[in-house]
Every structure is written in C-alpha cells, then in structure tokens.
TrEMBL record:
Recorded GO MF terms: aryl sulfotransferase activity
Gene3D superfamilies, per the entry: YVTN repeat-like/Quinoprotein amine dehydrogenase
Superkingdom field: Bacteria
Entry protein name: Arylsulfotransferase (ASST)
UniProt lineage: Bacteria, Pseudomonadati, Bacteroidota, Bacteroidia, Marinilabiliales
Amino acid sequence: MKRKNRIWIGAGVVFLVILIGAFRIWYVQSISIKSIKLTSPHNYAFQEKVDVELSRPASLYVRYWKKGEQEKYRTKPTAKAIKHSVDLLLLDTNSEYEYQVVIDRYINSNSKVLSFQTREQSPWLDINWMLDSRPHDPEAFGDGLLMICYARMPGYIALVDHQGAIRWHWQVDDIGVRAATLTPRGTILAMLRPPKKDVIDDKPKEHRKILEEIQKPMRRGKIGFAGGTAMAEIDLTGKIRWRTSLQGKVEKDLIHHDIRMDENNNIHTLYRTEKLYSHEVDGQSVRDTLVGDGIVVLDTLGNEIWKWSVWDHWDLEKDSLLDEFGYDRFHMNALNFDRDGNYLLSVAMEDQIWKVNAQTGEVMWKFGKNGDFKMDPSALFSFQHAIHVNAEGDYMLFDNNLFREESRALSFKLDTLTMTATTKINAPLPTEKYTSRMGNAYLLDNGNLLQTSSKTGSVLITDRAGEILWELDSPYVPYRMEYLPASCWNNYFTQE
C-alpha cells in the first residue's frame, strides 16, 4: 500500500511539474514582441529611443550596457500598453551598446540581446570646455552634471560632465535661454529671452579688462535687459511640456533674473514695476518714473495668482538715493524660498537679503549691510547673487563684492531670536576670477562648492577655503550654473 502511495505521489509531482512548465511556456508566449525599432531623437549621439510593439498590453523595461563592461542599467517599467517608447539617456558617444527588452510580469520574458552604435558627438556640440592647464579632479566634481544656458540664438540648455562632454542638450531655435533650474517634479524650468533686447556683453573678460572695469563707478546707467519674455518646462528626455509667452501677462511683458516652481507647479519670478514720483529740482516740482522690482506668481499658462511690489513696502520720503538710482532702485537679482515657504530676495543695490512673507508681503527681516542682524564686518557682501538655503540649513549666496573687489561663496547661520549671523563658509576666489556681475555659489553633495565667475567665463569647483579643484572654461558668459546630481535620473533609469 505504501509503495502504491509513493507511485501516485511521484506521478502527481511529475504531472504538476509538467503542468507548471506548460503554464510557464503559455504565460511567457501569451505576450510576444512584434517589433523593436531604434531612433535617435534630434539626431543626438547621446540618446536613443526604443519603440516596442507587443501582441497584448503589458509593462516592459529595457536593460542595457556598454559592450564589454560589467555595469548594467535598466529603465523604469512602463505602464501597460501595446506600444511603448523608452528613452535611453546619457549614453557615451561613439560607443557600442547591447540591450534587451524585458516584458515585466510575474515571469519575465526577454528579447534576444540586440546592439546599437552611438555616433560621434555632433560638431555643434563638440565644445572645448576644458583647458589642460586647469585642475580637473573628477572626485571633486562628483557624479552629477553641470547645467549651462546659452542666451543667444539658437538658445540651448546643456548638461556637461566632469570631462567637459555634453551629455544632454535641449535647443530652442527662435529665442535664447536666460536661466534654468530644476523643479520639484524633476523637470527643468527655463526663462526664455529674445537676445536683441539685451546689452551685447557675452564674451568672457581678460583679467586686465576686469581690473579696468573695477575702476569705473559702481553703476553706469541701466544694467541691461537681464530678463525673459517667455517660460518653458522640459523633462529630462528633452520633451517640452509647455511653453508660455508672457505678453500681456505681466508688466512690461517680461520677467527677470530668477524663476522657480513650487510643489503646486506654480511659477514664482521677479518683474519690473514702476511708480510715479514727484520731487523738487531747483525749486520746481518734477515728476519722474521710478523703476523697482516685485514678485509675481503665475500658473503654467501665465495667469497671475499673486503679486507683490516693493513700492508698497518702501518709504520714499526716507530714501536719499532716488534721484541717483531711481531708474533701477533695487535691482533684485535672485528669488528663492526659505524653509518656511516665505521668500528670500537678493536686493543688490541695498547689499542686503530680504525675507518677504509669501502671504502678506511683509518684509520680515533684512540681512547684510545696515540690516537687522549683527554680523562680522569682514563678511559683509555687496551686489550679491543666488541667495538660497543650502543642504546644511544655512543661508548661502555669491558675493560679487564691489568694494573688496573679490568674489566669494558665503554661508551664514542666522539666529532670529538674538538677531545674530554666524559665518559658516567664506570661500574667496583668486583675484583673476573676480566678477562684478552675475555668478552663483552652491554647496555640492560631496561638500565642495560650485562657484561661477561669470565675467571671466569660469565655472569652478572649490573646497570650503576657495582652493580650485576643477574648472570649466566657457566661450561665452555663463549667467548661472546649477548642478544636477545623479539622483535626478532615478525616474528614468537606475543601475542594476
């Protein structure tokens, strides 16, 4: 009896194995790949698009690797569908890759191993960003990419790696790109501007010319257009999500200097606002138009949500500089969010950072020269740019210091109870890297600093003392550089 039971059990196991095998074969073959097609969007050598058609709806991903290398990558699974388009991003140019399409189910099924060859870099993107005489420590750079914008036409945004190679590119033919920044949803927000409105001053300066410029008065007429007439959002595949003209949407049809997206996908930016002003000249009353700045919040269609004007919070009677600087009284050149959601403004003409309540418009405090905080006099800044809260929770900016004639990265810990400012980072650049306009300073994930000396065309990674560890040389003036860490691409591909 026991022997018969063993036979029946054995037969049952064999039958179950056959049944599972048959089910597996049916399951795998129930969805098949009908076609695989490769294209290169925009004819870029560093990007491929894999178009796949299945016999039935299913999710899939692509596993790919550089031929002969162990490191493999996989794209994020797609939604269930019959037709799929999968982008392979940040590929090395002039390289052979192998890949498989994987149908993503309980039991995956793979295509055979296929291959493709990327082209050599396109000539118009083969820019010599690096000079052999400059330091280029790859460990100082980290694993991210630098974002640089070209404000002439055709405008573009490029992402550059530690070797100076362009790994990503987005181009717009009819307008320039003034500035761009990463959004909370992992896309790129761009300020677009017509080059003809700007003062032509986009060539890096030699050290001798910088020294000559320093000798000139601090302000010499209007600073230039420095703004945009449109805005756009681009995802990291290079696809434009939307583009909005600002004509009829904001005063003067333009925004300037900075553009930010919040968690609700609304756009926060700066605009120019005017005010009529009556004053006495030689015993007679004269009416002038003062030019100032404000904050405007827009949706992605350009519809106004909220607006703030500096003139609503400024005492004209106590201002002794209106006659001299009324044409550009404040020159606000940076806008960002504090940790509590209120605004941080760089007010260049006052050599101050202001915190503005995002609900009431109240100026909550002023930091810097003649401000509300006690601070080390040697850390006073002037005509500063790029105010933000860094990863260490400190207030960080780029000091264009017009009086010290020295550019540097600064960060501060502000105590709003004792109203004191403690200097945390003071990283001056060499004299030959001085820039009296533009520029930025950011803290990288590895603890180093990204600093942009715009007028010299130098993009620098320094330590916290200001020692240069890595340098990029731009053939044109880079207004502001941002660093995109490798984690930005996690929504598109990951390493296996």
